[in-house]
Every structure is written in structure tokens, then in C-alpha cells.
Amino acid sequence: MVLTLSNPEYRNALGPEMYVAGVEAMNAAEGNPDVRSVVIAGEGAWFSAGGNLQRLLANRQRPPEVQRDSIEALHSWIEAIRTFPKPVIAAVEGAAAGAGFSLALACDLIVAADDAVFVMAYSSVGLSTDGGATWSLTHALPRHLASELLLAGERISAARLQQLGVVNRLAPRGGALESALALAEHLNARAPNVLASLKELINDAPGATLNAQLASERDHFLRNLFHPNAGIGISAFLAKKPPEYE
Q: What is the rounded CA–CA span in Å between residue 194 and residue 216?
């Protein structure tokens, strides 16, 4: 499934309607066995400019609960992506700014055009982050690098983020979606139950003790060994044939 952020007039700025639609799409994809992975891309030359500043300025004249509800809707989408049992790939062209950067970080993998830029633009307009940006960056980078991106609000290139291990693959300008779809096809050929187990293990690992993680790996391994897909995969490997997982 390809989810396209479509608000080209405002460089695919995010908003409450998009957050709700994003959650609905993830729920539909989770229950659809034909969907093995999800790619999130922006319409046109930009991934997303983040929050709509005109809307944020207007919300300053409204009760705080209005913006609270908007942020909660964004966070519901972020949580839906993080807990989604199938791979989610961000395909970034142009720029991922503010909440757009947060959204990309919530995905399992990031494919970016080689001229794309990323920026945590919040501090440049007198705001702190949302969308899990502080959690994502402090888990992905050393504290001082995360602090530089969050505090200084300066642009960082896709190439630099690849060197830091945040961006997985670079693509030629205009080719991020095509490259992301190719990566998705590679993942789609793997057993979906195994990918779901690995995502759960990856998500739980940072907060788990080694003993707890070892126990969890044991349980997932046993569950997957006795799943039909293990028989398919092992037999295909021994026969030197490509597996066709259920």
C-alpha cells in the first residue's frame, strides 16, 4: 500500500484530517493479507513541510484543547506506524521538515533522494517537538548529535543521515518512491509472521533487559518454527528454490 501525503499547495503540510486518514489506512492495511508492507510518500517534489503554520497561528486564538486534540491525533498515527506488524517505509523527496521529519522517523526504514534534506524546524518558530521526534532521534543518534538537530534546527542532508545510520538508502532525485517500492518488494517476499515478530522484538529491545529480550526471542522463535512458513522457507532453501510464503 502506498500512502501519499497530498497537500501540495502547502508542500504536503500535515493536519488533523490527514492524521485520522493515516490511522484509518493503517488499520485497513493491517487487516488486509494482500498488503505486505506500506510506503509513505509525499505528492510532488516534497515529502512534507510539517505542521501548517497558518493553522497553528490560528489555534493560538482558540482553546488549548483544540491543539491538544490535533497533537493526540498525530501521535495516534505515529503509534499506529510504530506498532504496525508489517514494514513501513518512508520515501522522501525534497524535504521532511518538522512533523514531516517526525513521521519519517516513525517508519521502519527511510529511503531518500540524494538531494533531500531533513530539518527539525520547531525551534526556528518558537516551538518544541511533537510526533515522537525527541524519542526517535535520541534512540537513533548520540545525545550530542540529537541535541544539535533539535536545538539548532538546522538542515541536515540525506547523505549525512545515511552516514549516521538514520537513512537506509539513497536514490536519485525523483527516484525515492521507486527505490522504496523495490525495497518493499524485497521485504514482501519474506514470511509476514517473521517480519511481525522482528518488528515487535526491535520495538521492545531498547526498554528490555538482556534476560527479558532473550526470553522474548526464544518465544518468538518457537512460535515461528512451528508456523507453516518455517516449513516452506527451510524446504525451499534446501531445494534451492525461492519460497512462497503464506
A: 13
- Tell me phi and psi for residue 7, to 5 degrees: -150, 60
SS3 labels along the chain: CEEEECCHHHCCCECHHHHHHHHHHHHHHHCCCCCCCEEEEECCCCCECCECHHHHHHHCCCCHHHHHHHHHHHHHHHHHHHHCCCCEEEEECCEEECHHHHHHHHCCEEEEECCCEEECHHHHHCCCCCCCHHHHHHHHCCHHHHHHHHHHCCCEEHHHHHHCCCCCEEECCCCHHHHHHHHHHHHHCCCHHHHHHHHHHHHHHHHCCHHHHHHHHHHHHHHHHCCHHHHHHHHHHHCCCCCCCC
Q: What's the fold here for domain 192-238?
A: Lyase 2-enoyl-coa Hydratase; Chain  A, domain 2 (1.10.12)
Per-residue pLDDT tens digits of the chain, which is 246 residues long: 999 999 999 999 999 999 999 999 999 999 999 999 999 999 999 999 999 999 999 999 999 999 999 999 999 999 999 999 999 999 999 999 999 999 999 999 999 999 999 999 999 999 999 999 999 999 999 999 999 999 999 999 999 999 999 999 999 999 999 999 999 999 999 999 999 999 999 999 999 999 999 999 999 999 999 999 999 999 999 999 999 999
Please indicate, yes or no, whether the overall pTM of this predicted structure exceeds 0.85: yes
Start and end residues for every CATH 3.90.226.10 domain found in the chain: 2-188
Q: Give the C-alpha separation, 82 to 121, whole Å.
A: 22
CATH class of 2-188: alpha beta
